[in-house]
Amino acid sequence: MENTRRLLAIMARLRDPEGGCPWDLKQDFLSLIPYTLEEAYEVADAVERGDFADLREELGDLLLQVAFHARLAEEQALFDFEDVAAAIGDKLVRRHPHVFARVEFSSDEERLHFWENSKLEEKRERTGEEAEGALSGVAASLPALMRAQKLQKRAARHGFDWPEVGPVFAKVEEELEETREAFQSGDRQHIEEEVGDLLFVAVNLARHLGVDAETALRASNGKFTRRFGHVEQSLKQRNRAMVETSAEELDGLWEEAKRAGL
């Protein structure tokens, strides 16, 4: 707790109009959004790399964002850091009656149903409004791939889903053909729409296969980066520019990278 108090004191000093940091003093809730998102992704990156020394550092950077937002709120008499901690503590206890209140759930599905109903009830208490629909709680600000998967999971919980994976494969093929037809039409708006549909159904396929689409794509991004780096380095050793290299030779170097396990 001593270090937590120290962090909050440092944050207050940085925001002090008399002698604080000019950059920190200029920030508001909206301006901090990119930094908060960036720090969350850097936490994920450290976990995926298994670098736990870096994870400790990145979690600290993310905690700073929480402290910063809480400080802004405190200055506006909205809430403070203690209120944030109290709220999440209360929420965890409320959403885990099987741990804290001796409630027994007969299955994971029943437990998940309770969790979702708890979220809806919390929203009603907070806003005084009923949820607009089954998908209303999925934040529009999420990365598109992650939001697609959350939307599909939420719809599936309400019975809107294919019962097995076979029709999803067929839907991927259908959307791919529609994308091809849109490309042949030359209509840019239609092409964009069909590419979006193709990506959306690819996420649905990942979900049916038990794969987290965001995690899978991050892994593929990393794989592409490693293999591209191999191609780049190989050409550099030969004093060759990539733009001057044939597609066949580039493909050969790419296959070489695959055989090397990159």
Give a quick set of tags describing it:
262 residues; mainly alpha; Helix Hairpins; 3 domains; 12 helices; 74% helix; globular
- CATH topology assignment of the largest domain: Helix Hairpins
Gyration radius from CA atoms, angstroms: 24 Å
Highest-level CATH class of the largest domain? Mainly Alpha
Proportion of residues in helical segments: over 70%
- CATH superfamily of the largest domain, called what? MazG-like
Largest sheet: none
Note the overall shape: globular
**Terminal Cα span:** 44 Å
Number of domains: 3
Mean pLDDT: 91
Proportion of residues in β-strands: under 5%
The structure class reads: mainly alpha
Low-confidence spans: pLDDT under 50, at least 5 residues? none
Name the helix and strand elements from N-terminus to C-terminus, one letter apiece.
HHHHHHHHHHHH
Number of strands: 0
The CATH architecture of the largest domain is Orthogonal Bundle
The total count of helices amounts to 12
